[in-house]
Amino acid sequence: MTMAKMNNSSQGYFILLGFSSWPHLEVVLFVVILIFYLMTLIGNLFIIILSYLDSHLHTPMYFFLSNLSFLDLCYTTSSIPQLLVNLWGPEKTISYTGCMIQLYFVLALGATECVLLVVMSYDRYAAVCRPLHYTAIMHPRFCHALAVASWVCGFTNSALHSLFTFWVPLCGHRQVDHFFCEVPALLQISCIDTHANQLTLMITSSIFVLIPLLLIFTSYGAIAKAVLRMQSTTGLQKVFGTCGAHIMVVSLFFIPVMCIYLQPASENSQDQGKFIALFYTVVTPSLNPLIYTLRNKDVRGAVKRLMGRE
User: Fold this and answer.
1) Alpha-carbon gap, residue 259 to 253, rounded angstroms
2) How far is CA 94 from CA 58, 154, 169, 191, in A?
3) Residues 6+ positions from 9 with CB-CB distance below 8 Å
4) What is the pTM of this model?
5) Cα–Cα distance between 260 and 274 in angstroms, integer?
6) Residue 171's pLDDT is what?
7) CA nearest 170: which of 187, 195, 183?
8) Contact partners, residue 96, CB within 8 Å, separation at least 6
9) pLDDT on residue 295
10) Digitized pLDDT (tens) for each residue of the chain, 310 residues in all
11) Closest C-alpha to 270, from 19, 26, 81
12) Is residue 179 a contact partner of residue 19, using CB atoms and an 8 Å limit?
């Protein structure tokens, strides 16, 4: 019976309801989301290319920032093009295979970002609190190992959730009340009790959200103590510039994720969840390049050198 239902679903498609409850908003959302998506592509590609071309940016900080930019490019591309197609036309469907692939990559890249932000906070801790040993601690080989570990953790976690989610038999209507294939939305259309799946999601979400946040707070607690002992105004400005940008990025990513995955379900949570998810899948990745580059002297210097002014 279970396998028959799974096979039936696998031969069909899903209807992503998205924002169909607000048809008057769909054209406005299409334009706004397209603008933010283009900003995400341009801004993150700019950071990746600049970090690669300028030798002065071949440092652990910009290595991890390039990883974050590539991650954000992949993360938005895994869901936004499909959303734009569904907003523009009358068809709001996605194939079963497409839904599986989208779910896997959205989960994988989201979990990877949680771990990568911890790695970036550790890099800032080493730079501020252990400046004399920074080069030895953040050796290129160690940096590459940390980056690989972030990606492996995210993709392994996603494989677990994707298998559990698509193993659940689904009901006939196949209407997913979201703008992309997401675990809670897919579990809502299942034909069996999904408490075990929801418990697994809650546990792993706690591991990939609360533990990273605790580690980030620990890093910045140590940084705050080190900053209070600093005498140099220039040093203070540099610390606040790099660490402040990272704290802002962490806040923009973790706060919406906590609202989605760690709050109890309610009648309005599904509609609220769509707009919150829209924020961290569309807005946050487009703001990250601006946050890291607008007041960054290293980036401004790299741009000048690239343009041949220095």
Assistant:
1) 11
2) 41, 24, 18, 20
3) 96, 169, 170, 174
4) 0.86
5) 9
6) 72
7) 187
8) 9, 10, 11, 12, 13, 14
9) 64
10) 333 444 444 457 888 988 888 888 889 999 999 999 999 999 999 999 999 998 888 999 999 999 999 999 999 999 999 999 989 877 788 998 899 999 999 999 999 999 999 999 999 999 888 889 999 999 999 999 999 999 999 999 999 888 888 887 777 668 888 889 888 888 888 877 778 878 888 888 888 888 999 999 999 888 888 887 776 666 566 666 667 788 888 888 888 888 877 766 554 566 777 888 888 899 999 988 888 877 677 787 888 887 875 5
11) 19
12) yes
**Interacting residues of 51 by C-beta distance below 8 A, sequence separation 6+:** 57, 58, 62, 63, 65, 66
DSSP 89: S
Residue 161 tokens, joined? 């959730």
Residue 151: what residue type? W
Beta-strand ranges (E) seen in the chain are 13-16, 93-95, 175-176
Distances (CA, A) of 113 to 142, 161, 195: 18, 17, 27
Tracing tokens 């970090």 back to the chain, one arrives at 51
Query: How far from 221 is each of 129, 130, 158, CA to CA, in Å?
Result: 11, 14, 31
Residues in the chain: 310
Distant-in-sequence, close-in-space partners of 35: CB < 8 Å, separation ≥ 6 = none
Q: What are phi and psi of 16, to 5 degrees?
A: -90, 105
For the chain, where are the alpha helices, taking DSSP H only?
A: 2-10, 26-53, 60-77, 80-88, 96-129, 134-137, 140-167, 183-187, 195-228, 233-261, 269-278, 284-293, 297-306
CA 235 to chain centre: 30
CB 111 within 8 A of CB 207: no
Burial class (CB in 10 A: 0-12, 13-18, 19+), 101: middle
- For the record, the structure tokens of 157 come out as 């976690």
